[in-house]
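Protein modeling request. Please complete all fields; requests missing the sequence field cannot be processed.
Requester role: graduate student
Desired output: 3D structure, token encoding
Chains: 1
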Amino acid sequence: MQHLDLDLLRTFATIAEAGTLSRAAVRVGRTQAAISLQVKRLERIVDQTLLDRTGRGVTLTPQGIQLLAHAQRILRYHDEALAELSGKGLSGTIRFGCPDDYAVVFLPILLRGFARKHPRVLVEVHCAHTPRLLERLERHALDLALTSLLEPEKGGAIIRREPLVWVGPMGFDAENLDPLRLALTDPDTPDHRAARRGLDAMGRSYRIAYASASLTGLTAVVRSGQAIAVMTRPGVPEDLRVLPPESGLPRLPSVGIVLTVDSAQPSAVVKAFADHVRVVLPTL
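Delivered output (284 residues):
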């Protein structure tokens, strides 16, 4: 009788999340060839093809999607049982801060992966822009937070870089309005400062048509065709468009993503989550 090996299932689940064998190999600490062999072993056990290789990575076959749902449940129950019965599993609550755009793109995978390793840990997520997160860290209202630095500003060890881009609506040439209408976040945020700095340097007239700490509000204004915004490239919704260089707008800098921990001697659970973010985030 065949058995589903937990190690094979864990690797398979990691590949499904990572989207490529190379990124999954980094996360599990094995070579790409080794995890490819694991997938083949798993496919032999279930007698099904689980992955389709594409030029951009891998996708799950219908059978792979079906197995993934079972694998996630099996791994969750296994990890919960082991942590509870052994008494060695970490437990507690982490107060984690993150900007909205990073939360949408990165948090699902970060939290899901950490929960598999430490099912008894609760991660409270607090979304806000970088300046507000830094204020909360200073008040010790957060244990750790992802924040952004406008490059080449200094401030901490950068674990990932993302380009800032101009974003406009589909079907409208909002970038051609005169004066240019902007939908921006708080004046001290990296995207707001980068937008105004670039436009001032080139002498382009503009006005702030909408200012809000709400990413939902900003994207709604952009969708209406009344303004353009500045976002990190991964955070751009599919129904909005990145404005090309020929739009006549100034080039924007990149931001560096920094993980800031409140205490120099964090608890074991906070350190474990910080280590997890530093390993996984660069691979997403």
